[in-house]
Amino acid sequence: MLLSIVIPVLNEAQTIPLMVSRLRDTLDGLMWEVIFVDDGSTDQTWSILERAAFDDPRVKLLRFSRNFGHQAAVTAGLDFAHGDAVVVMDADLQDPPELLPRMVDLFRQGYDVVSPKRISREEETRFKRWTAKLFYRILSRMADQPLTPDVGDFRLFSRRAVLAIRTLREQHRYMRGIAGWLGLREAIIPFERRGRAAGNTSYTFFRMLRFAWTGVSSFSAFPLRISIAAGCILSFAGFLYLSRVVYLALFTTALVPGWASVVALQCAFSGMILLALGAIGDYVARTYEETKNRPLYVVTECSNLPLPQRALTRAVILAEPDPMSVIAMDDADRLSSGAEDPLSYHHPLAGMRV
Ligand code: UDP
Ligand code: MG
């Protein structure tokens, strides 16, 4: 069995050597490959990766032309992975490699998705822990498919789960939602999330907020419908009040007081209308971006990796093929799965090449 590990990296020069040696230690006895996807790093990351790939052919590299984002890097890694099982993890050792043998055991027991669930988060601020908890609870209520709370992108997927994920080529990707959307058999194991081994998180507060909104808008149309409920309630209240005012004006001598209340209500309702418009605008913008059908990423270099023989949809591969790696990889594939031609696999669900 071949285990692929997909690691998106953005400016992780300090953590890569640590990561590779920890993988070597923990995966001793297993057949494995690690695919680092350099998502437009601007520090020494690429040269450190090249050195690691030169030293060990199991270290495979993809390089993006620019920063396409964490989720795009994960997608590229999954597109190029050959393993019978594929694990996605962070480069910063927040997701402990020591958990991999247990995840592989569960995969061998027949689970398609193995999800380590964070039971504690070391070194994260109380604010981040609290907002993350709240977000997962809200999203799992809103989303059309169930979502496992407190599970990040650190996950193991079986080969057939990866084949299914490859058919989803949306631009605004939320892998955590996609994993739930698959509906395959999932095992959950608790783990304690450590702090970063080095460097800083690239998810600032606003990036987290944007990512959270991608999660909501990719998996739920609920925000579009909130305004329907709010609109119904408010119009009902408005008409009740109106009938009272008409009654007072026609049948009594009472004056209807208060421009202040009118202004306050006007402000509140305009705000709500603008919010609803903004939400609708955002969905329209995302639909517009999706209809452009642009590629999800551009690969300019790869190392120790053969180019896929199948056509990759919504991906641009500008890297030159490396004949040595084609031979090496074919051997690895034959050893691992016994498949005749694992690179051109006919997807059982879609009946098309993926
Ligand atoms: N990452 C990436 N592209 C980005 C942002 C992050 O490839 O645009 C990588 C990063 O190097 C790390 C992983 O994605 O390996 C998760 O990022 P990070 O550790 O900064 O996020 P956190 O764990 O703090 O949520
Ligand atoms: Mg991290």
Description:
- Helix content is 48%, strand content 16%.
- Residues 327-354 have low confidence and may be disordered.
- It has 354 residues and is an alpha/beta fold.
- It is elongated and about 95 Å long.
- The protein has helices at 16-26, 45-55, 70-80, 100-108, 126-142, 159-166, 175-182, 205-219, 222-251, 259-292, 323-337, and strands at residues 2-9, 31-38, 59-64, 85-88, 113-121, 155-158, 186-193, 298-303, 316-317.
- The chain folds into two domains: 2-205 and 294-339, Alpha-Beta Complex (Spore Coat Polysaccharide Biosynthesis Protein SpsA, Chain A); 222-292.
- The longest helix is centred in the last third of the chain and has 34 residues, at 259-292.
- α2 (45-55) links the parallel β2 (31-38) and β3.
- It has eleven helices and nine strands.
- Strands 7-5-6-4-1-2-3-8-9 form a nine-stranded mixed β-sheet, with helices on both faces.
- Magnesium ion (MG) binds at residues 90, 92, 94, 196, 201.
Q: Estimate the strand proportion.
A: 15-25%
Largest sheet: 9 strands, mixed
CATH top level of the largest domain is Alpha Beta
Structural class: alpha/beta
| CATH fold call of the largest domain | Spore Coat Polysaccharide Biosynthesis Protein SpsA, Chain A
Shape: elongated
Please write the string of helix (H) and strand (E) elements: EHEHEHEHEHEHHEHHHEEH
* CATH homologous superfamily identity of the largest domain: Spore Coat Polysaccharide Biosynthesis Protein SpsA, Chain A
Helicity range of the residues? 40-55%
Which ligands appear in the coordinates? uridine-5'-diphosphate, magnesium ion
- Terminal CA distance reads 21 Å
Q: Low-confidence parts, pLDDT < 50 over ≥5 residues?
A: 327-354
Q: How many distinct folded domains?
A: 2
Give the rounded overall mean pLDDT.
87
Task: Please provide the count of β strands.
Answer: 9
Radius of gyration: 25 Å
Secondary structure tally, helices = 11
CATH architecture classification of the largest domain: Alpha-Beta Complex
Strand order of the largest sheet: 7-5-6-4-1-2-3-8-9
